[in-house]
Amino acid sequence: MRDPKPEDPVKISCSMDWMMVEVTPQTYSSRRYMFADELHLGSGCPVTRIQTYAYDFIYPVYDCGIRTQVVSEHTLIFRSELYYNPRDRRHHCRTVPLECSATRKSVWLTPVSTDEIQLDPSPFIADFETMAEELGLLSSD
Asked: What long-range pairs does 103-108 form, CB within 8 A, spacing at least 24?
């Protein structure tokens, strides 16, 4: 994920399966409001979610013409573009290059093996025995 500047209107993040782009529709520097239909990702993919202060593009990395580059066995780079085509033709069209990376070694993607975890028995429960009546399972009421 690239580090956004305080006024950066575009934030991007990736996983091995998804590209997520968030666009602030009004930047402080331009004071121009961008409408959702003026923006598209890659090969014409529209905004997927409209929030009060942001537009989101959330797409699988194999969609919208997103390009993938293998950097290593565990790391991929994803590239695309964000296109701005203003309704008002007095404003210029813009293309913003997008790039982010994802790694297979992410803690979110690492499977947990129970074979590696060895828990010591608790001294509080070692001699714990109870009867069904104590647990209220066999109440005769």
From this structure: 103/74, 103/75, 103/76, 104/16, 104/73, 104/74, 104/75, 105/74, 106/15, 106/16, 108/15
